[in-house]
Amino acid sequence: MGDYAIETVKLTKFFGKRSIVYNLDLRVPRGVVYGFLGPNGAGKTTTIKMLTGALKPTYGEIKIFGLEMPRERVEIMKKVGYMPEKPLAYEDMTVFEFLTYMGRLSGLGKEEAKVKARELMAYTGIGRLAFNKVKELSSGQRQRLSFASALIGDPELLILDEPTSNLDPIGRIEFIGKVLELAKAGKTVFLSSHIVSEIERTCNYVGIIKDGQMIEQGRVKDLTRFESNDYDVVVSDNSQLIEFLRDKVYVREVWEDEGIVRVHLDERFAEKFFTEVPAFIAENGLALKLFKPHTSPLERILMKRFNEGWEG
Amino acid sequence: MMPVFETEFLRLLRSRKFKLLFLVTMFPAVIYLLNPGASGTGVENLRAGFEALFTDLLPNYWLGIIGQLIVVIIMSDLIAGEIDRGTIRLILAKPVRMSEFLAGKFLAGLSGLVILFGIPYAVIWFYAPLPYDAGFDGVRALAGDFGAVMGSTVVVLTFLGALSMFLAVLVKRPLYTTLATFGVLFLGQFILPQIPYIEHPERLTLGYQALVMLKASFENLNVVGTPWETALAFLLTSVGLLVLTWFLLLRQEFPD
């Protein structure tokens, strides 16, 4: 069990007679960025609350770095940073005081905690708010504070619950950059989200949860390898391209939609599409303006399994 | 335990609630400064006056209904506030033992209360020798009585604090915890003792028991009981309540 940063066996949580999480086997290898994907109400936050000790499993096991949760919570939390879905902080404290306090709770000395708090305020872009009270912060600024608080003990594993839900688009891009930086530094990141594009851009592992049960888990590239796809292409003369593609064996259907040529491929011969189309474009002196999958592979896996209630 | 204690203690001292409640505990001391009502001069008269003052004010004001309410307001919020606002999940996600968290919170609250009650007591202790013309000898002569007053107050505050924290873990909302604790105290001191077969119901108040503890230093107190036994009973009950609180905290879930 020690090979995984997080491992759960038949993790189950009932509230009354209703199961929120059911027989969940989560396996998060060390050093990966793991996307925990599922629609609202799928059981992501309940799972995370069990991982961080706020809820106790009805049955099942949780091991984090081989240590048993909740029995060895204190030892586990020396290695874990947690960012809750709803940023939590003491409203009457200043940003600096709060981070220093969190640092001290993480086991840092007084001065060390202050130094680390200053560093992280700068890193997360809230340095100028150091002496503002938490209650004066916007929701995005609270989210950044919460991220800084998760990082303050220099954890090996970061558990981030919907970390970008209150961030603006620039903030999201910055955040994804920072997660990738942390991953490069060897941290394990467990990131829950219902936003597919976010998971795709950030994670190399993914677990998909539906109605409290794991329905797919593994490397993103392994899961998406065999997925067929539609492609979007735009060239300087779309009609020429459509004419070229119309009778090709690898094309099931081709049509133009708002200036974009949409190609539905036959996956058995898809390789030819990637060799013949670029050659055709070059030979005919066309300018290539767009060439991309119509939907992301991960999104299409999800669409197969969820018929409704999906956001993102 | 130290980070929780230090942070909570400073938060408490800076809070508006603490400043407001300080005005309430200071009120009798201010009245005393304005009108000490000294009966004679010298150390003997000073001690008699000091003891009479505290025999009256301790059970009727500082450890009476008003004082008890102050303690409950402060102590109820320490744990119930964390549960209610969800910040206890931040604590759980840090390498802090529940026992350290509880001890830090409890000692921070108790230290705040000692300041809240200790300052008015000390003001009277240091000021009383002036109207009695007793000088520094008077301050020294009152040291034992002041110690007894502080000691008996701290014992009662410890009990009230432990009871508030215990109920906080059960009730989980600061306002409801305050009401529940106050309800339990009122019931225990003023309603249940009215059951006909209970003899001497007046002895079942915290104020009365505080007077029993004052007997360790005060002279001529007409109360029944042994100071050390009373103090021990309160402290053991407080420890029992805190252990139960810790036990409940370990078993609690914090979904929101």
Commentary on this structure:
- The complex is a heterodimer of chains A (312) and B (256).
- Chain A has 312 residues and is α/β, with parallel strands linked by helices.
- Chain A has two domains: 4-221, P-loop containing nucleotide triphosphate hydrolases (Rossmann fold, 3-Layer(aba) Sandwich); 230-294, Alpha-Beta Plaits (2-Layer Sandwich).
- Chain A is 35% helix and 29% strand.
- Chain B has ten helices and no strands.
- Chain B has helices spanning 2-14, 16-34, 43-62, 65-85, 88-92, 98-127, 135-171, 174-191, 206-214, 227-251.
- Chain B is globular.
- The two termini of chain B are 25 Å apart.
- The mean pLDDT of chain B is 92.
- The interface between A and B is medium-sized, with 31 and 22 residues.
Task: Give a nutshell description of this structure.
By secondary structure, chain A is of the alpha/beta class.
What characteristics describe this protein?
heterodimer, A: 312 residues, alpha/beta, Rossmann fold, Alpha-Beta Plaits, 2 domains, five-stranded antiparallel beta sheet, 11 helices, 15 strands, 29% strand, disordered C terminus, B: 256 residues, mainly alpha, 10 helices, 77% helix, globular
**Could you say how many structural domains of chain B there are in total?**
1
Q: What structural class do the secondary elements of chain B suggest? A: mainly alpha
Give the assembly state of these chains: heterodimer
Structural class of chain A: alpha/beta
Rg from Cα of chain B: 19 Å
Query: Strand-residue fraction of chain A?
Result: 25-35%
**Strand order in the sheet with the most strands of chain A:** 7-8-9-4-10-11
Share of residues in strands of chain B: under 5%
Q: Roughly what is the average pLDDT of chain A, rounded to an integer? A: 88
- Into which percent range does the helicity of residues of chain B fall? over 70%
Task: Compute the average pLDDT of chain B.
Answer: 92
Distance between the termini of chain A: 34 Å
Tell me the series of helices and strands of chain B, N- to C-terminal: HHHHHHHHHH
Range of helix content of chain A = 25-40%
CATH class identity of the largest domain in chain A: Alpha Beta
DSSP strand count of chain A: 15
- Parts with pLDDT < 50 across at least 5 consecutive residues of chain B: none
CATH H-level name of the largest domain in chain A... which superfamily?
P-loop containing nucleotide triphosphate hydrolases
